[in-house]
Amino acid sequence: MDIFITGLGAISTIGNNVDEIYASLLAEKTGIRKGTLDHSMKYHVGEVPLSNEGLMEHFKLKTKGSRTALLGMVAAKEAFQGHQLMDEVRTGLISGTSVGGMDITEEEYRNYLKTETFDAEKYKHHPSGTTTEQMAEELGITGFVNTISTACSSAANAIMMGARLIRSNQLDRVVVGGTDSLTHFTISGFRSLMIFDPEWCRPFDETRKGLNLGEGAGYIVLESEKSLQLTGKTPLAKLTGWSNASDAYHQTASSPEGNGAVLAMTKALSVAHLQPTDIDYINAHGTATPNNDSSESKAFINVFEGKVPPFSSTKAYTGHTLAACGGIEAVIAVLSIQNNVLFPNLNHTTPIEETGLIPVKQITRIENVRNVLSNSFGFGGNNSSLIFSKL
Amino acid sequence: MYYIHAIQSMNNSDVFKQEDIHQKLVEVSENPTLVTPDFKTYIAPTALRRLSPILRMGITLAKEVQAAVDQPFDAISVGTGLGCLTDTEKFLNVIYTVEGDVLSPTAFIQSTHNTIAGQISLDLGNHSYNMTHTQNNLSFEMALIDGMLCCEEGSKNVLVGAADESIEFLNKLKPSVFDSETLFTTSATFLAISADKMESSIAILACKTIANAAEISVETNAFLAAFGLSLEQINCFVLNTNELETPANSEVFHIDDQLGFNQSSSAFAVHVAHDFLKSSTKEFALIVNRSSNNYLGLILLKNDKTHN
After folding, report:
1. Residue among B113, B134, B124, B4 nearest B74 (CA)
2. What are phi and psi of B106, to 5 degrees?
3. What ipTM was reported for this prediction?
4. Going by C-beta distance under 8 Å and a sequence separation of 6 or more, which residues neighbour residue B218?
5. In principle, which of A85, A197, B158, B233 could form an S-S bond with A210, CB 3.0–4.6 Å?
6. How are beta strands B158-164 and A173-180 bridged, if at all?
7. What domains, with CATH codes, occur in chain B?
8. Chain B hits for A145, Cβ within 8 Å
9. Which of A125, A285, A325, A348 does the annotation list as catalytic?
10. A119-149 pLDDT, tens per residue?
């Protein structure tokens, strides 16, 4: 059964919507710069420049929520634009997030540590599930509302879950993706892991030091063929392959050979009934940590038997947006298919010595981008691969 | 229909590795504490020290369920409402109180919701599908829907479970954040499901979640009608609400009486219903899980020991 994509929405430091993001990608313009908040100012991060009030006003949001929920509403609404709710089309929302309402919780908890007083109401925004419920309210979606939380693979897994529910005839149409805001909690977390690059991150470069964090949200709308007949929407691309596998190696580090990644990519190809040679572009997870990029590179060589297709990480544009990255990168994969363009891996100079792999380094237009593989890997060895295909 | 081949729980009642738990439930006390086995039997002492209660429960229950079915899982699907709160709070304390450039990452690493399922995959050396759902008190239902979908797609032995842990701070927040007068408790339930019947007689017929639900009786009747059933044919109800009028001759368990408030309580409700059906000739059990904001979870269990 075909799973059609009929809507795209995204917000990140490189743009408030899909058109702006596409323009920044083409202009090879990063959005990563020195942070502007107390907890981000020491680092290079990909902040969305609008405040929470700014987001509510600019995008005319009706529902209040954490920053994570607000970013999610913006991107999900863009993806769902032009869609109508109707009884005959069972419509769901599945969203990935790792921090949920932590941006509010951490402020309140800091206050509590100082004063031992607290405003219990503020904690209402904390649960990740509530983030999605707030988004559902804004979109008017009732029925199936679910949240996936598998760290940095959350959005990819939400997309996968949506596709599987459509294929199983439990849903006709579903808004899927992920959202995460930058928080003191995650900035401190990655600092404690000592995997920040103090400068601009350099995915797949021999000299890479680590990642830059970012924030944002990315959603796509998936529909069955039956749903298309009722909604009358024009499909943009298809989602043909998906898989999740467990690396089962370490709490945070990937196995040196990328075993979980190999499993995820191989199984996604099999779900899509595609051969490795059918993949025209890989949008890599490519966080620019020494461990991820080495492990992912070796997994590429293994899966593609040495003939690795053009690949790049777009995280040097957006920063690593954690639970949102699979959603934003799903939008980027569809842009690649629609426009037959491969997006560059910014800041790359020296290939990783051990693998010698060279990513796409400038905007590259090819005759036909048929299939794009998109990887998202999370803590706990949670590896997910999606395949997007031309109609 | 998805058969339950093993089910294990841990919470404030003495239920771990017990049979007929529906007869062993005790009312939640003023000071509920988690009744645990000796975790050292399941987890190496060096690892045990850094693991919070939610992670200890997850690993132990998964291992016990795997031992009972005696084969590796080919998918793992876990639900949690609030995730790893002990480590989340610990790391919040670290970032606001520890001076200097070096922070211990352990609490951060273990604070993400999927540490429960991830740690299970690590401990069991399991490379299969590994998913974590979090939808407040419907988190277990979401994990179950995914687990049943895995069976539909060909998985033969799926681990489904849910876990939530209480921390002292949560009790300060009620009732304004959570619609509950009862105390927060720590609880987890894990089960192995499969489309194959094998030795099992208790099966999950269906699980449904509804956001923005209409009246409970309306939704419940519609849910049952799809299976040609009515409320009167349900022999056992495990619920967290008084809003449903249950038939006079049915067995009713109010899960909050035993468990207090726990966002994974519907997973334990399945365990209670499972043991009730297993020890009887009764045919159907229904779990009704309502949340304050009109989200509703419904799970239907069937005993096909005597009814085919």
Report:
1. B124
2. -55, -50
3. 0.98
4. none
5. A197
6. unpaired
7. 2-194 (3.40.47.10), 202-303 (3.40.47.10)
8. 135, 209, 211, 295
9. A285
10. 888 999 999 999 999 999 999 999 899 999 9
